[in-house]
Design a protein that fits this description.
heterodimer, A: about 350 residues, alpha/beta, Beta-Lactamase, Rossmann fold, 5-stranded mixed β-sheet, elongated, B: about 575 residues, mainly alpha, CCDC22 (chain B)
């Protein structure tokens, strides 16, 4: 099994950059934050959600360095880059411009999933914005990214195509999932295979994203299942409204209160408590048989082998799970044949 | 007067009344009918308006006339009016009544309802007359006018035409109608009865008679009037065209009673048929209307579709144009790419230009927002402070309230206690006594203080006196001693000795005095104690004890004696 093969199957294949919008949000030294610039436009709900995410990031991190986080809302990936306005000597702009500003956040909206790529662009945008204190120059950079797919500012040049061959996400932790849940991990796999509504709770956002994407990697068989993954969602009505018409999704949430919305999930995964609960209305859909148990045992055994890499682990599990699905298909066929007979 | 008359007559004819050209020729029957017709128009909703017929019983006629007179009075007729003024009118009376009624007629604004009412009235009168078939009642041209009445829209148009023209039209109308319907002649007078169901319909569904009016049925219905018009209206409404032979024949046939019977049958049959047909037509009409509505809706939706399609087409056209352009560009290869690049570049430049412009607005606005925000923050902090203050005040208030409550509780308790206590002892007397006692104590304290001061003073005096004594003694002692040493006189020595003796004696006396005072004090203390002890009644108690002891001793003796001598016990 070659690495490239794994890439294709496991992960969302790297897609060319499709940038939609860019926003600048300034965080005051107090509690306030304000969207000061947008191109081409921003919506109220979208910005509200964005503000909440930034507030959450701000709460959890006190370090002075740059932070990059991302989430998905209505099929659009939002990459948030937050950094303090690092004023270098020799900058043209007087410091008073950023006197009251604690941090600057740049939010890039895109259609493609590629956190690494947009972290780099986001950081560049912040630097441009802080150094020039002129959104027009930022706009020029943004348009250059849209039109030519690259940015050039002072001595730095970043090409969007640079990331086209790199996996957008590699930080899976299936092994940790299996050690946490043991043979119950099969429930997660089955839920994804059977397209149930899975909601994952974890306190820390980074861990949450890793867990959600790992669960997806366990069970997804086609690229388009990535359409249904929302690694970081807040427990708010306006944000959850996007799911009303969906009957399959994997949603990650850092608010424990999400469990109090019973109609929202079929399977609820509480990672800190190592609990998987299947909603009563989904129990019928989650019936499992002997082959499932075999797969579960196989997963546990495999994860105990420290020599196998995370990728190989995922790959092996997928292979085994494929057998499962084939078997179930056969069973279904037999059942339907029997009915017809 | 003639002009007034002609106007009156014209109006009344329009309303559908039949009357002659002169008011002086007006009969009571005509007058009554005119008045009633007008009343019906004035009060279309009034069902109490009676009908009048010359064939009615005389008493009934009187009654109707009475009612009519009453109605007129109700309407505001100021002149005196009674049944006789209607039934046996003088010319001036009739004129007055008619003028009044005509004035009260609804105005042009009510034309629609008027038309309908006219239709109805026209038919009613027509049918009545046909039924009656009495030339004596229906003055000739009257029926002709009624034909006009059916065709009211025309009549309304000719409102301002002179009477003669109107007559001319009327006669021509009759002629024309006749010419058209000649073939369908056979039905005669009784056919007019067919109008009755229409009259009924008229109330229920105003649409029907109009539609029917346009069909042959109504034309056929209209026809019976024609002969009458011709027969009766010979004097005035003479059709200018010579009467058709058929028509004349039929006219001739009318009076024959044999034929009448036959015709009646035929007409009854026809009537039934016509009724059925009219009903069918009505149903058909309804169906058609529904269909029409449906079709209208369909048309509307179709129009919407058309609009949509048009938009679609426009969109498509735009797309095609765009695609055309792109294809052109593609075909142009290098040039095309150049063009596209240029276009994009120009767009980017444009955008950046806009952005630059926007920036000039944006920055002050953002600063403004910041300032406002800070202001609100400050305000909020002020508000917060006041809120905290309010909170603290509230808590204080709560505490105070609790305190007040506890105090109130205590107060109530005390109140209850107080109520329990006997109320005979007045509080004031107690307090008075207490204050008295306190005053006494204060007085005593003052006296004690005085005494203390006195004693202190005396002590001081004593001290100073004893000091002086000591000093004087020392001086005297020294002086006498020196003298005694110098002189060695016996008297001096004697005096010295005496002095010493006096001194020592006096000091002894003082000592004894002090001791005596001490003793006296001790005795006083002891006396106090004694008094205290005696206050305890020790003596009395001792006496009682002694008596008890004696008794006990006696008892003991008796017991001892019993022990020694059991007989005593037995005897006892």
């Amino acid at each position: 099994m070659t690495q490239s093969n794994v890439e294709k199957v496991i992960d969302m294949p790297p897609a060319p950059a499709k940038v939609i919008a860019c926003h600048v949000i300034e965080l005051d030294k107090g509690d306030g934050m304000m969207k000061t610039w947008s191109y081409p436009a921003s919506e109220r709900v979208q910005m509200d959600i964005c503000f909440r995410k930034i507030a959450k990031i701000k709460k959890s991190i006190s370090a002075a360095g740059a932070i990059a986080k991302y989430y998905k809302y209505c099929k659009t990936w939002h990459y948030i880059n937050i950094s303090p306005p690092l004023l270098e000597s020799g900058m043209k702009i007087a410091e008073k411009e950023f006197l009251r500003i604690d941090r600057v956040a740049v939010v890039i909206e895109t259609e493609d999933f590629n956190p690494v790529r947009y972290e780099e662009f986001g950081n560049l945008f912040i630097r441009v914005f802080v150094a020039e204190a002129d959104p027009t120059i930022l706009l020029r950079q943004f348009l250059s990214l849209v039109v030519t797919g690259k940015c050039h500012w002072e001595n730095t040049t970043i090409k969007a195509s640079k990331f086209d061959s790199i996996l957008p996400f590699q930080d899976f932790r299936v092994r940790s999932l299996i050690t946490t849940f043991g043979i119950e991990t099969i429930v997660l796999l089955t839920a994804v295979l059977r397209k149930q509504r899975v909601v994952v709770y974890n306190r820390k956002v980074d861990g949450l994203i890793r867990d959600v994407l790992s669960i997806l990697a366990l069970g997804s068989r086609s690229d388009n299942q990535w359409d249904n993954v929302y690694p970081w969602v807040g427990d708010n009505d306006d944000e959850l409204a996007q799911f009303t018409d969906m009957n399959f999704y994997i949603v990650g949430c850092a608010n424990a209160t999400i469990e109090n919305r019973p109609g929202f999930h079929d399977i609820f995964v509480n990672i800190p408590a190592a609990e998987i609960s299947v909603a009563s209305h989904a129990k019928e859909n989650m019936m499992m048989s002997k082959p499932h148990k075999e797969v579960a045992l196989f997963m546990v055994q495999l994860s105990e082998n420290e020599e196998i890499s995370e990728y190989d682990l995922i790959q092996e599990i997928r292979k085994k799970a494929q057998e499962l699905s084939i078997e179930s298909h056969q069973l279904k066929k037999r059942a339907s044949d029997a009915e017809e007979a | 007067m003639e002009e007034v008359d002609s106007i009156l007559i014209y109006t009344l004819k329009q309303v559908g009344c039949d009357l002659g050209s002169k008011l002086s020729e007006l009969t009571s029957q005509q007058l009554m009918q005119c008045v009633l017709a007008c009343l019906r128009l004035i009060r279309p909703d009034d069902l109490e308006i009676p009908t009048y017929d010359s064939k009615m019983l005389m008493s009934l006629r009187f009654k109707v006339a009475q009612q009519t007179a009453k109605l007129l009075a109700e309407l505001g007729y100021t002149e005196e009016i009674e049944c006789q003024s209607l039934l046996y009118p003088t010319e001036s009376d009739a004129r007055k009544v008619l003028i009044f009624v005509v004035e009260k007629l609804p105005r042009e604004s009510d034309v629609a309802s008027q038309i309908e009412t006219l239709h109805r009235i026209a038919r009613e009168t027509t049918s009545k007359e046909v039924k009656v078939n009495d030339t004596e009642n229906a003055f000739g041209k009257g029926s002709g006018i009624e034909v006009d009445g059916i065709r009211l829209p025309n009549a309304v148009d000719i409102n301002k035409l002179p009477k003669e023209t109107l007559k001319f039209y009327a006669s021509h109308l009759a002629e024309l109608t006749f010419a058209k319907e000649r073939e369908k002649w056979p039905a005669n007078r009784p056919k007019a009865k067919t109008s009755k169901p229409y009259v009924d319909d008229d109330f229920g569904n105003p649409d029907i008679p109009e539609v029917i009016g346009s069909t042959n049925d109504v034309s056929a219905k209209l026809k019976p009037e024609m002969p009458q018009l011709v027969i009766d209206g010979k004097s005035i409404l003479k059709p200018p065209i010579a009467q058709k032979p058929n028509f004349v024949k039929s006219v001739d046939e009318v009076p024959h009673p044999d034929k009448e019977q036959r015709d009646a049958d035929v007409i009854a049959e026809k009537l039934m048929m016509l009724q059925e047909i009219s009903e069918q037509k009505a149903i058909q009409l309804h169906q058609r209307m529904a269909e029409l509505n449906f079709l209208n809706l369909k048309v509307a939706s179709m129009q919407g579709d058309v609009e949509k399609q048009r938009k679609h087409i426009i969109d498509k056209g735009k797309r095609v144009e765009r695609e055309n352009k792109t294809s052109q560009l593609i075909n142009d290869k290098e040039n095309g790419i150049e063009k596209v690049k240029n276009a994009i570049d120009s767009q980017v430049e444009k955008l950046i230009n806009y952005s630059f412009q926007w920036e000039q607005h944006r920055k002050p606005l953002i600063d403004q927002i910041r300032c406002k925000r800070e202001d609100t923050l400050i305000e909020q902090s002020g508000v917060g402070k006041t809120r905290d203050k309010i909170k603290s005040l509230k808590s204080v208030l709560k505490e105070m309230g609790q305190e007040a409550q506890s105090k109130e509780d205590v107060y109530f308790k005390l109140l209850i206690e107080y109520e329990k206590m006997s109320k005979e002892l007045s509080r004031s007397s107690y307090t008075q006594r207490i204050t008295e006692i306190i005053g006494n104590i204060k007085k005593q304290k003052k006296e004690i203080n005085k005494i203390l001061e006195d004693t202190k003073q005396i002590q001081k005096d004593i001290n100073t006196l004893s000091g002086r004594l000591d000093r004087t003694f020392a001086v005297a002692d020294e002086l006498i001693y020196k003298d005694a040493e110098k002189d060695k006189d016996k008297s001096v020595v004697q005096s010295y000795k005496l002095l010493v003796a006096i001194h020592s004696d006096f000091s002894k006396i003082i000592k004894t005095l002090e001791e005596a005072a001490n003793l006296r004090r001790q005795t006083r203390d002891l006396e106090d104690k004694l008094e205290l002890e005696s206050g305890k009644n020790v003596e009395h108690k001792l006496k009682r004890l002694r008596a008890d002891l004696v008794q006990m001793q006696n008892e003991n003796m008796i017991l001892e004696a019993r022990l020694r001598d059991p007989t005593i016990k037995r005897s006892h």
